[in-house]
Each structure stands twice: as C-alpha cells, then as structure tokens.
Amino acid sequence: MEHIAHAILLAALAGAAMPLGAWLAGFDRVLPGPLRNEANHWIMAFGAGALLSAVALVLIPEGIARVPGLVALLPVGLGALAALAADIVLSHRGGSRAQFMAMLMDFIPEAIAMGAILTADPNLAVLLAILIGAQNLPEGFNADRELSVSSATPRGKRLLLFVALVPAGPIAALLGITLLSGWPALLGVLMLFSAGGILYLMFQDIAPQVPVDRHWSPPLGAILGFAFGLGGHILTL
C-alpha cells in the first residue's frame, strides 16, 4: 500500500504541471513582443531538451534492458509510425497539435513505467516523476498556446481539459505497479514505443519551431532541459 500511495502522489504531482503550464501561458502577453517571442521559444526548447533527456536517459536504456537485441528497434519504429499517423489525421482536421500529442505520448507511458519501476528502484521512479513534471510544465504552456490558435475553445474550458488529464497519471501509475511490474518485456516495449513517438514529434514539429530569426540563444534552452535531466540521472547513479 505504501508503494501504491507513493506512485499516486508522484504521478499526481507530475501531472499537475500540465494545467500549471497551461495557466502560465495566459500571462505570456505581459512581456513586450520580441522578448515574449524569444521567451516562448526558450520554453519550447526547454521542453524539447527535457523530452530528449527522458528518451536518452530513461526510456531507451530501461527499454532495451527489458527488450534485448535488435527486437527493441521494432517498438521504436512502431511508436514513430503511430505518431506520424496521428499527426497526419490531426493535420487533415485542421492545424497541428504536436505539443498536446507529445504531452500525452510521454505522460501516460512514463507514468506507467514510473509505477512499475517504483518497487524495484524508488530513486529511478522519483527521477522519472521529476522529468515528467519538467516536461509537462513547458508542454502544458506550449500546448495551450497551440490550442488557442488551432481551436476556438474558450480558455476556461481549455484549462479544465488540462486539469481533467491529471488523473490519467495516477491511473497509469497504478496500472504499472499492479500489472506491468510483473511483465518486464511488455513494460520495455511500452517505453520504447513511447520513445519512438516522442522522437518523431520532436524532429517533425517541436524542434523546427525553436529557432528565432536573429536570435541564437533559444536552442540553449534545449541544452538546459537536457542538462536538467542529466543532473538528475547522475544523482541516481
């Protein structure tokens, strides 16, 4: 029961970063135009760096530890193809929702993985929860701005949508700790599938939006985001 309560708490805190980021997006107009534009690109870059750290330091290493050999390449490819298919469908329906997709494609599988890992390696589970939160905050920020352009949904309803996504984390963590902890190969496939989808979204939709004309600092946000995840990884070694 202690592990279950711990998993629920970690997943809820990590998930709460989504509506917090979406709420903060409403204040980006406080900054003057050019500075606001560069700050928004910085936030997007930090989220991309945090996503990359999760893929490079947690999802891929833990995935291939459970799915050995070249078989591990299959779920990575399938994850990328699934993200491609979803991106095409959403584009045909009008506008890109890459940030919203990325937020869901890393939050739910990582919450499942966090729950499954918690009983075996609590420190790694805490690191994963921190990385999820670090990703969800800028992703919530960027996803709300993205939806404000591609959707006519009022801001209040958009915030409620983000709040409604928070319980998905504890539910996913419970699934991981009760079911998938006994199925390491299936957990590995899920982590690799998520990694493939995240990588597709990063290079197709998120990374191309980071640069700003005549501004060279926003890409450093990606380095900062990755360094944040790397520092946490080093502390768990």
Description:
- The structure is a single chain.
- The chain is mainly α and 237 residues long.
- 81% of the residues lie in helices and 0% in strands.
- The chain has nine helices and no strands.
- It has helices spanning 2-24, 33-66, 73-92, 98-118, 122-150, 155-165, 168-178, 184-206, 218-236.
- Helix 5 runs antiparallel to helix 6 (155-165).
- The radius of gyration is 17 Å and the shape is globular.
Specify the overall morphology: globular
**Uncertain regions spanning at least 5 consecutive residues:** none
Main β-sheet, in a few words? none
Number of strands: 0
Helix % is: over 70%
Roughly what is the average pLDDT, rounded to an integer?
78
Helix and strand composition category: mainly alpha
Quaternary organisation of the protein chains:
single chain
Radius of gyration: 17 Å
Taking the alpha carbons of the first and last residues, their distance comes to 27 Å
- Along the chain, the helix and strand elements come as HHHHHHHHH
Portion of residues in beta strands equals under 5%
The total of helices stands at 9
